[in-house]
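Kindly review this record before class:
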Amino acid sequence: MAARATAFARRYASTLLAVTVVAAGTLVVFLHQRAYAPFFTDDGFISLRYAARLLEGKGLTWNDGERVEGYSDLLWVLLCAVPGLFGGSLLTGARVIGMLCTAATFGALIALVRPSRPVQWLGAALAIGMLGASDSVAVWSMGGLESPLVGALVSWGIVAALAAVRSGSRQATLGAAGCFGLVCWARVDGALWPVAAVLGLGLGFRKQAWRLGLTIAGTALVFVVLQLVFRLAYYHDYLPNTAYAKVALTDERLKAGIEHVSKSLFPLAASWLALVSCGVYGLRRERLRGATVLHLVLAATWTAYVVRIGGDIFPAWRVLLYVVVLAASLVACTLSDDLRSPIAPAALRWALALVTLTAVGSHFNPMNWAKGEVWQWDGQVVGKALARMFKDARPLVAVDAAGTIPYYSRFPALDMLGLTDRYLAHHRPARMGSGFMGHELGDASYYLERAPDIICIGVPPCQHAAKFPAQEQLLARKDFKSSYAPLRFEASSNTRTLKALLWVRRTGRIGIRTTPTSVVVPSYFLTTPEGAVARLGPRETIDANLPALARAKVERIDLSAGSWRLEALAAAGSARFTLTSRSRVVAAGDARKPLDFTVAEAVSIDIEVVVPAGSSFTTGGLALHRGPWTAEGARRAAAKEEQP
């Protein structure tokens, strides 16, 4: 038995050591993530909503009955759906997939070095250490978007391409083509990677790489065409909706892109320094020149693209993460050569300095606000609360942040910033490209035409002033103010309770319900005063709680002529009703008792509920019913029955 174990260990020593190094690097990233937990970007929940609806048999759609490509990472969406096939959490699954992709990138660095001596293993470990020390890697391995997937595909594409050039292996050629083909599905702009790879291979290896270059280019073209055919057939468009919502090649965006990259020079100093120093070293050595050119062309092409599109709006240098990965990959290549030479001690000191610089730069990073970006979890609480409160009505919810509330509520959703809305994406403002990327679309008239039942302004819990022009215009319109009321809801989870200010439409799925003989006012329409709140009661009913001295008013209730009775449903506490029409008191009385009154003609009344000092008032809503509730009403009803 011992002999077999020894033979097994000798045969698979390199594999076991590689697994150990990758596992150690992944553990470092996992521990590093604790500094930024529980970050998960809101846009990641957009991808998860598409994945969830796909699993429900509703296709890659945002809402029922419409098809909009509101994601930019098809392959990531499909991968995130896989855990759901086995009943797993999509959120946890996305995090696990992100970490697996990071681990795969670490594996690519080892495969790139192909270490045969212990000191070379140290070189691979140092390259992995650069990534493990990077905030960008830690944040986006758990951030919920496709960044780690693209990093893994590009890394293995480089490994396979270099192996194919060196050996002419058909398997390596197909591997490189497959990786660079798949990256076209991982990002909308993923086709840039195979283009840059073909260019880098051609410049670095010249005639040696022409067949490989053609294979990569042809495979990438097949992937691009297949997705285009799918997009045209399924979404009836040539570009994804996100491209219309974000891309604008203006001078303002160019300046923003230059500023974005320039601000990264210190936080990502180790990566930029590694690219420059390793680039100079590699270009001077024939055996490293081809690999160095490939890395530099990939990094330069992507950086130029980032500059042109205007940089990025996410924390921790999301789109420059690939530069960090390429820098570590080039460091691995360089160390694989340095550690065979007499200058090995100097190379190790230099590599350790890069790892240290990566760690230091990451922690002095003004563009990494991931630790403080936790409002997504407010969205989780609000979304789940709305799902419980309105599970039967399924209201249309309009949001600025299109991730968490739509994902957790599972309700139809209107994305007011247009990432998942075709109309807004195809009706861009005249000054598109001069404002905040991804937040420039909007149309107040369109919002009102869609008539959402609930509107959340700003990020959850929606207690924010309007930040974008279309929302400001919406809140200023008279027809909006007459159709919507700002109401306060309490949303609770197992550990947290918060308040959300939501604009609710007076009519519609969850609005005031009116018939010729009755009017039902849901409890939450009484939560306009400060301190009042609507919450889910113990019997899964929505109750409004009004504190002492609260004055809640429900306006413009249309009643026909006749006798009416007003009741507070499931009332507790003390309050007083006052009904007015054109500033004239129609009736008044104790809110704990039915209030009967008669109107001689059709009128519009306002109902005011006033809570006295030292008390509070809780109710499940207000109900008005027409009938012979008064003596006069009974007389009129009897007279009507006697008529032939």
